[in-house]
Amino acid sequence: MIILSLIFLSLFTNISLGADTLSPNQSLWDNGHTLVSQHHKFELGFFSPPSSASRYLGIWFKNISRLTPVWVANGNNPIPDSTGILSLTPAGNLVIYNNQTKSAVWSSNSSAANSVLQLLDSGNLVVKHIDSGDYAWQSFDYPGDTLIPGMKLGWDLIKNKEWYITSWKSLDDPSTGEFSYRLNHRGLPQIVLYRGLDIQYRSGPWDGVRFGNGSPFKPNSIFNPIFVFNSSHVYYTFENSDSTVVSRFVVNQTGLIQHVAWSEKREEWVDIVTLQGDTCDSYEMCGPNGVCIFDAAADCRCLGGFKPKSLQDWNKRDWTDGCKLSLQCDVVGGVGVGEDDGFMKFSGMKLPDNSTFLRNGTGLSREECEVACLKDCNCVAFAVTLVNTCVVWFGVLLDVRQYNGEGGQDLYVRVVKSELGFKSKKKNIAGITSGAVISVLLVAGLIGWFVVRKGRRRQKKRAWALDRSTHESESNPHDDDVEEMELPLFELSSVTIATNNFAYTNKIGEGGFGPVYKGKLPNGQEIAVKRLSATSGQGIKEFKNEVILISKLQHRNLVRLLGCCIPLVKKCVHREERMLVYEYMPNGSLNSFIFSQTKGKSLEWRRRFDIIVGVARGLLYLHRDSRLRIIHRDLKASNILLDIDMNPRISDFGIAREFGGDQSEENTKTIIGTYGYMSPEYAIKGSFSIKSDVFSFGVLVLEIVSGKRNRGFYHADHDLDLLGHVCIHFLIDETSFHSSKFAWKLWNEEDAMKLVADSIQSSPVSESEVLRCIQVALLCVQHRAEDRPTMASVLSMFESENLAPTQPKQPGFYGETFTANTDPCIVDNNEMTLTTLHGR
User: How far apart, in Å, are the Cα atoms of 315 and each of 179, 281, 307, 351, 579?
Assistant: First the structure.
């Protein structure tokens, strides 16, 4: 077919020299002929880079003595000699042929009958309809290493289309290099330089007027920066200051980001702006909660009130671990109140990475933004942009620097009030006397408060001790922390009223812990109440574990615990009730969406991808960035809750475990979790680590992409499901982890897109994102724990456009059989399994 097409092409007339248009009956041969835009600003043709014989089709500036390609079509598919032909097919597809091999090396994959190809004076190469003038395809949608005026760096949010630039591999090789410069539009938009999967530099967020400190993007005599940010588009572009200026924005093969202009006098490109100004621009130079200050050299300091995690390393100028986060925050009536916290102002700052818009935040004053942040225990810092938009940060503060001189923004960091240096200054005798009297009264009040508080703690400790004596449980490292637990206690009567006496109509779910009820407090706040069931497979150990762990965790992708109700405390003595009170998640669990043919249709691909990334961020916080180091051990779709904006929240920490800083793995006598999500080393040997959660995350990603349960399969020997099969035989064979096996099979056959759920086929789907998600998931479910990536690497892979360079090995349980001498499985209605392993 291709040969016939080429024979047909040979009948076409060659394009006349200097024309700007190519019709379907014409071809552009690699014989010195080119397309030239109407006013001779740009030229299209075949060229070879310096010191290379390979031929490429590209666009360059017409009236500049040095050949400078601004766009290359076949960068990854060069033609070895001058036998290239450019043709526009009658169907409107732009194709480059290698006449020597009689094959196509590049195609625009466009379709536009009755169309022509035209090179515009803007440098944009377009396939346009003759009748309407609409573009069916344009080169500006596929930038290379260069932006020229009119090209964009950012997103079309309606079409889910991204524009970004990628470096050449070398000066002589325009194939895809290792550096890419892209706009991240989550939170405050910012432009980020990646080297492969790793962030190298970011501009600092857009505050409504400028990026970061503003200097690289200020209007000047060469170019005027333009930033568009609305509901349909978010992108950066620029225009030259006048028609005589020729300038471009480029990321070179070494990762340097520059805006350069052509100097006719010097006949060379002159640097106007280089974005990487000093070593403080290196991403996360000073670690979490550290700030980089550049004077004669880079130096790292902790943000006010914080201390280095490792003073020894800090003194050696090893800032990797960053600084400790120290806050005081309680929850009263369902609202976080940091009575012992305040905010320290830092000026001239590059705002941290991963910002979040506060809901209804536009137009908030600094005082209103501060109050809103203070009420949320997850909020660690805030800023008010130049257009009065309130933005906040959760967890740790990453990649903060202070600018010298002009630029930067005000950042308000949450610290304990004692770090703010509040002092009472009395200048007269009356003031001193009044202060003394107040001090005496205050001391007396504090003593009384301490006595009462200590009594309450003893009472709570006795209650926990009594429960512990009546329940056999595995040794728990948190037993000594119970006395230090500070969490509001809800009265049983108030919870009963809120849930309409635990009415059946208020019941919204049933978990391993027991039933869950929706309620509403007198202040109007909606809550979810988990009530411990007498027949639950989970008991006081899991209850304590969840209270102690989740009360210390603060992250936007974790569900928030508002309070609890425990026995032998005066507020909750009736019927030995034990309850946990959470913030209410109006959209329920992810489980109810991805496995439903009806609700699944409302979960389009973009939303699914955001959920995947949100869960990954929550896990990264648990594994690395929280005050504790937590392994969840039961990550699954039903334990991912969705808030009103469909943001994911990881829930159910009943069987989570805290790791020591130097631990890599731990063993347990009791396997507790959900088959279908358990890693092989945990299900077989009882060994678990952060890589166990990574395995569960990989299974979850495959379920989100496919819309199919991982445990659904058919076995010829019996009609039991996987759990029944495992409990009878404790054999985990190739029928297990069905979606993992299916995805692995399709991946190897290069047909992985078949895995995509039917419910999202009708919505816009980014094939590159889907394939990247499948590859990351398969990397996560590899059999050997050491082969699986960390969650930090997973997030980096999600933020890269390209597939990861590492190819996945076969999934855990794929094509293998394992046996273990075990007791019978104990299974409840919610897929919770407890298996005792002998000899451990």
Answer: 33, 21, 12, 26, 47
CA distance 412 to 284: 19
Q: Can you list the domains of the chain with their CATH numbers?
A: 1-142 (2.90.10.10), 143-277 (2.90.10.10), 281-420 (no CATH), 458-584 (3.30.200.20), 591-836 (1.10.510.10)
Q: Would the pLDDT of 449 be above 60?
A: no
Question: How far is Cα 538 from Cα 746, in angstroms, rounded to an integer?
Answer: 39
If we measure between CA atoms, which residue out of 525, 551, 512 comes closest to residue 329?
551
HEC sequence for 612-646: HHHHHHHHHHHHHHCCCCEECCCCCHHHEEECCCC
- Over range 45-59, report the average pLDDT: 94
Inter-CA distances, 332 with 126, 335, 447, 491, 627, Å: 61, 5, 23, 13, 22
The answer to whether 622 touches 651, Cβ cutoff 8 Å, is: no
- Report which of 552, 553, 548, 580 is spatially closest to residue 564, judged by C-alpha positions: 580
- Beta strands 56-61 and 69-72: pairing type? antiparallel
For residue 811, which amino acid is it?
P
The single-letter DSSP state of residue 112 is -
- Distance between start and end Cα atoms, the chain: 67
Of the spans 162-166, 280-284, 586-590, 757-761, which averages the highest pLDDT? 162-166
Q: Are strands 257-263 and 268-274 parallel, antiparallel or unpaired?
A: antiparallel
What six digits make up the tokens of 460?
A: 């709570």
Q: Which two tokens stand for residue 215?
A: 């200097």
Q: Which two tokens stand for residue 666?
A: 């731990």
d(CA 712, CA 289): 45
Tell me which of 65 and 194 has the higher pLDDT. Answer: 194
Residues 197 and 795: their CA atoms lie apart, in Å, by 9
Tokens of 621: 């916080």
Please name the residue that has the structure tokens 């990453």. 398
Give the least confident one: 155-164, 500-509, 809-818. Answer: 809-818
Instruction: Identify the CA nearest to 585 among candidates 560, 563, 564.
Output: 560
Strands, sheet with 670-673, edge to edge from the N-terminal-most edge strand = 670-673, 833-836, 826-827
Q: Is 302 helix (H, G, I), strand (E, B) or coil?
A: strand
Mention every residue, 6+ apart, whose C-beta is less than 8 A from residue 357.
Answer: 187, 188, 389, 390, 391
pTM score above 0.70: no
What pLDDT band is residue 82 in, cutting at 50, 70 and 90?
A: very high
Which helix or strand (DSSP H or E) is residue 136 part of? strand 135-138
Asked if residue 240 lies in contact with residue 223, where contact means CB atoms within 8 angstroms, the answer is yes
From 634, 645, 721, 828, active-site residue: 634
Task: Count other Cβ atoms within 10 Å, centred on residue 64.
Answer: 14
Nearest by Cα to 110 from 125, 132, 131: 125
Altogether, the residues listed in the chain come to a count of 840
Q: At 104, phi and psi to the nearest 5? A: -85, 135
| Residue range 659-687: mean pLDDT, rounded | 69
List the structure tokens of 202. Answer: 């970011």
* Strand, helix or coil for residue 672: strand
Q: Is 634 a catalytic residue?
A: yes
The CA radius of gyration of the chain, in Å to the nearest whole number, is 31
Rounded to 5°, the CA angle 168-174-179 comes to 15
Residue-by-residue DSSP string for 555-571: -TTBPPEEEEE-TTSGG
Q: What is the dihedral of CA 676, 680, 686, 692, to 10 degrees?
A: -80
3-state secondary structure of 688: strand
SS3 751: coil
